[in-house]
Specification:
The protein is globular, with a radius of gyration of 28 Å. By secondary structure, the chain is an alpha/beta fold. It contains 13 helices and eleven strands. Helix 2 packs across helix 9, helix 6 packs across helix 13 (299-316) and helix 10 (259-270) packs across helix 11. Strands 2-1-3-10-4-11 form a six-stranded mixed β-sheet, with helices on both faces. A five-stranded mixed β-sheet has the order 7-6-8-5-9, sandwiched between helices.
């Protein structure tokens, strides 16, 4: 017996309705599943080593400025600039705080492609060569053992000092090591001089048997400290990096407006007193504010510093054992 057409229609409707419900459920489950597997935004990983001008990144973090900007920043700490540089070249960080010397060294090796995104400061006496009390000038370094950190701005400062004194690399004995290692050797009197910077250099401010024989003040504006980010990552995170620059500059402004509070937060991290950290900021570096960023990030300014670096590479190439990788003819 043939069912009434209205019953057939009713059955068809029920099946259609069931299909819609099942289909909706599948769609809903797919939607939920899709939401679950969606990757979370990864934090921007930035390598950082002890240096007064970089500490405003930590201050911005502590004051909640990164959170205010809605950006996820992971500051990865290293005890030496060389270690931070190596981690970046290995892809373990997305960027690092460094000087233009390290920027150009990384470019030369062509393992990664760093892009300057923030100028922190210029070194105006912060990078130093400290010698024994009987070393009165760079000329007195002839025949002496000098500790330095390879592939870092230490090389640049030392080369410029030797150039100005009319000495060559062959006139001295270089002893490589991290900042902590060369400081220990200097304290044990196994070295006659070391190339260093705050906070290590501040330990010798009151030491009778130590004196500054050369500093970045003798080569004004040649050592610039900055933040560099891998080029592709920088391009994909332009909004985040603009927010980072705002947060960093807010931290510098907070220090200007509330110096005592800021110094308490900053100095403690480096194990320095208020006075030591304040002296480093006032006497040894010049902070670069937001209004000057565009001029100093300009390619012509960076290329001018690159020219200085090339002259240093040529200077070092006179001794093949010390020549930077890829330097020379």
């Amino acid at each position: 017996m043939t069912p009434p057409s209205n019953l057939r229609r009713s059955g068809t409707v029920r099946l259609a309705a069931l299909a819609v419900v099942v289909g909706s459920g599948v769609l809903m489950l797919w939607s939920i599943s899709d939401q679950r597997v969606a990757p979370r935004p990864q934090p921007l990983r930035i390598g950082i080593n002890p240096w007064p001008g970089y500490e405003f990144a930590f201050l911005a973090e502590k004051l909640g400025y990164f959170a205010d900007e809605g950006i996820d920043i992971r500051l990865v700490e290293f005890q030496s600039l060389g270690d931070s540089q190596l981690a970046f070249e290995r892809g373990q960080t997305d960027g690092l705080f460094c000087s233009t010397h390290e920027l150009f060294e990384i470019e030369r090796r062509d393992r990664r492609h760093p892009m300057p995104v923030l100028i922190c400061d210029t070194s105006d006496g912060g990078d130093v060569i400290i010698g024994r009390a009987d070393i009165h000038s760079v000329s007195d370094l002839r025949g002496r053992r000098i500790g330095y950190e390879p592939r870092t701005v230490n090389e640049y400062l030392l080369a410029r000092a030797l150039q100005q004194a009319g000495l060559t690399v062959a006139d001295i004995e270089l002893v490589p090591g991290s900042q902590d290692q060369i400081a220990t050797l200097f304290n044990e009197r196994q070295l006659d001089a070391i190339v260093t910077y705050p906070p290590v250099s501040l330990d010798y401010a009151e030491v009778v048997d130590a004196r500054v024989v050369f500093s970045s003040r003798d080569i004004p504006s040649e050592i610039v400290d900055l933040l560099v980010i891998e080029q592709g990552i920088a391009a994909a995170n332009s909004v985040k990096l603009e927010a980072f620059r705002r947060a960093f500059d807010r931290a510098v402004q907070f220090h200007e407006d509330h110096p005592d509070v800021a110094l308490t937060m900053l100095a403690g991290r480096l194990g320095l007193s208020h006075e030591e950290f304040h002296r480093a900021l006032v006497e040894d570096i010049r902070l670069v504010r937001a209004t000057d960023q565009s001029d100093m990030l300009d390619a012509s300014f960076i290329n001018g510093l690159r020219t200085h670096k090339q002259s240093v590479d040529q200077f070092f190439s006179a001794n093949s054992s010390l020549a930077p990788e890829g330097a020379g003819p």
